[in-house]
């Protein structure tokens, strides 16, 4: 059962599963939002597993920090965890590098202690701890997830790069750029192996190869934009300290994750994000050579 089938990640996972003739019980966001009262009726359909993508967009693209919104998310996810335990159903939950303070110079592994520095990261760390006491779980921590939503991480950066104005970007903001289709691939790979009765429950990191700075990602995007004719001139990119940017104090300066455990356990190899940029731009900006207004 896929909760959140109508967001970008849910759509990518549904399409990938369909290409492999795997049928998902897809549930989109109901009118009025996600309510715990609906959980028993959904789980009465007796799914083998539940993939919780209900708040993917709010957490991974918007980085919502509003206390009331976070409380509503926390309440739903907590109720979902309890319902899955009651029905003895595997639960797959997303988390992120926000559970770390970003001070470590190297990529974070699953063994590193959490130290969230913002409300969203604190909520994710709290939900992780609640789920870790339940055996039948998978927690997938992600770094920078890139999708085609206009107001998402990638969309905001593309707007800056296509504006014909100087672009100010943070220095030494590091992470793993990970296209949403790659995340869908990893989720489906996890589910298929667990469905074969492999008791590989637990916490795993995944990020696209290789670790990059935000400025390096921007420069790679510029080359793709120029080559495809979306822009005519190389924009001026001005590096500034991370501490001067709006994401400081909200996102870890180092959001890089080590994917060694998921590789050794499931055989899931990281894919190079650079080779997937052209496809992302096609989805985000429309037909080739159609320049954004």
UniProtKB/TrEMBL annotation:
Catalytic activity: dTDP-beta-L-rhamnose + NADP(+) = dTDP-4-dehydro-beta-L-rhamnose + NADPH + H(+)
Transmembrane portions of the chain: none
Domain annotation RmlD-like substrate binding: ranges: 1-283
A Pfam entry, by short name: RmlD_sub_bind
Pathway stated in the Swiss-Prot or TrEMBL entry: Carbohydrate biosynthesis; dTDP-L-rhamnose biosynthesis
Function: Catalyzes the reduction of dTDP-6-deoxy-L-lyxo-4-hexulose to yield dTDP-L-rhamnose.
Protein's name according to its UniProt entry: dTDP-4-dehydrorhamnose reductase
């Amino acid at each position: 059962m896929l909760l959140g089938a109508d967001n970008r990640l849910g759509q990518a996972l549904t399409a990938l599963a369909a290409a492999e003739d795997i049928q998902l019980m897809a549930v989109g966001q109901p009118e009025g939002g996600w309510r715990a009262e609906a959980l028993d009726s959904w789980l009465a359909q007796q799914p083998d597993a539940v993939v919780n993508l209900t708040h993917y967009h709010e957490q991974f693209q918007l980085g919502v920090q509003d206390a009331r919104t976070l409380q509503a998310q926390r309440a739903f996810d907590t109720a979902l965890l309890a319902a899955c335990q009651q029905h003895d159903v595997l639960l797959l939950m997303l988390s992120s590098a926000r559970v770390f303070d970003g001070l470590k110079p190297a990529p974070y592994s699953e063994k590193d202690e959490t130290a969230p520095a913002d409300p969203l990261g604190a909520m994710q760390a709290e939900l992780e701890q609640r789920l870790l006491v339940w055996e039948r779980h998978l927690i997938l921590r992600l770094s920078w997830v890139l999708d085609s939503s206009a107001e998402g991480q990638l969309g905001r950066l593309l707007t800056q790069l296509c504006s014909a104005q100087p672009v100010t970007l943070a220095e030494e903001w590091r992470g793993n750029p990970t296209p949403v289709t790659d995340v869908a691939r990893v989720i489906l790979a996890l589910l298929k192996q667990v469905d074969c009765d492999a008791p590989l429950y637990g916490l795993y990191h995944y990020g696209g190869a290789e670790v990059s700075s935000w400025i390096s990602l921007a420069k790679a995007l510029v080359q793709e934009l120029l080559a495809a004719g979306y822009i005519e001139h190389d924009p001026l990119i001005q590096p500034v300290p991370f501490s001067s940017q709006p994401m400081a104090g909200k996102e870890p300066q180092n959001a890089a994750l080590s994917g060694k455990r998921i590789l050794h356990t499931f055989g899931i190899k990281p894919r190079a994000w650079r080779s997937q940029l052209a496809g992302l731009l096609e989805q985000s900006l429309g037909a080739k050579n159609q320049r954004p207004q």
